[in-house]
Specification:
With 89 residues, this protein is of the alpha+beta class. It is built from two helices and two strands. The longest helix has 15 residues. The chain is elongated.
């Protein structure tokens, strides 16, 4: 779906994207040969979660787990309360 909106820069050349930037932490900016400004939105992730994006097998496992959960393929494993005081690895 293509959306179009006219934005006007302020006296310092700034443009407010408002709701268009919801969920976006940064943009990569490209200016093409026709002088069009292209903003590619980025949603950055914490470094502590980067390992998942760097590990295709783990990423696929999580993806499959989400699909299974959405399709109702889940199992009750009981309480894990006995492990609550174990030190983190």
């Amino acid at each position: 779906m293509l959306s179009e909106k006219v934005l006007r820069p302020d006296s310092k050349g700034r443009v407010s994207l408002g709701k268009l930037a919801r969920g976006v932490s940064s943009f990569r900016v490209t200016v093409d040969d026709r002088q069009r400004i292209i903003l590619d939105p980025y949603a950055e992730i914490p470094v502590t979660e980067k390992w998942l994006f760097d590990n295709p097998a783990a990423r696929e496992s999580v993806r499959q787990g989400l699909v299974d959960a959405m399709d109702g393929r889940v199992s009750e494993l009981g309480s894990f309360a006995e492990y609550a005081d174990d030190p983190d690895d």
